Amino acid sequence: MTELAGDFPEEEAEASQSEEYNADAIQVLKGLEGVRKRPAMYIGDTGENGLHELVKEIVNNSVDEAMAGRCSRIDVTITEQGTVHIKDDGHGIPTDFHAGENMSGVEVVMTMLHAGGKFDKKAYQVSGGLHGVGASVVNALSEWCTVEVWQKGKVHLQKYARGIPETGLDIIGHTEETGTTIEFKPDAEIFESVIFSFEYIAYRLRELAFLTKGLGINVRDARSGE
């Protein structure tokens, strides 16, 4: 048995005094800063799996719309520029003003962790995504991200850079359709590689389409014409 005494070498005592742990030593990461600082906590890793998790999280939000009976089609495109463009014909992210957060519903979903309509049973009976974490995490880990929402006769657009809004939620047109389109470019500062695998994405989305009744998912690789 080893007895632990309270006598420490003088230099160690001095070091512990100079590195005193108090309230000033506590770091507060605001907004989506924490996601960029520790991405693996949210997407597993920053390698190939983590990169493709971004696609899955956005698609899962559309699948949740399908499970709620509000979406029948999802189009996923890897563009020639290497971005991913995901479009659904769901109800659309709410564009109205969120009084509690003093911003639009779109901005709440895209910039705040744990924000969404999936925490209770009112808006969604079932959910396959990260319950409101997915879209904001994708936004945080993207060099840029754009969101377009067709809702209540209007087309709304908002642009982001590394999770920070670059524009307001602008009305850019009129439409009779409903749905959401999100396009994003993964941040090369975060990921080991930002090149998507069409085969990997097509395989995962085939599974989702098979498991979700009444949902059609179309996948296209504009880089090769597949």
Automatic annotation (TrEMBL):
InterPro entries: HATPase_C_sf, HATPase_dom, Topo_IIA, Topo_IIA_B. Belongs to the type II topoisomerase GyrB family. Keywords: ATP-binding, DNA-binding, Isomerase, Nucleotide-binding, Topoisomerase. This is DNA topoisomerase (ATP-hydrolyzing). Residues 1-21 are annotated as: Disordered. Its EC number is 5.6.2.2. It comes from marine metagenome. GO terms for molecular function: ATP binding; DNA binding; DNA topoisomerase type II (double strand cut, ATP-hydrolyzing) activity. It holds the Pfam family HATPase_c. One of its GO terms (biological process) is DNA topological change. Residues 46-190 form the Histidine kinase/HSP90-like ATPase domain. The keyword Isomerase applies. It catalyses: ATP-dependent breakage, passage and rejoining of double-stranded DNA.
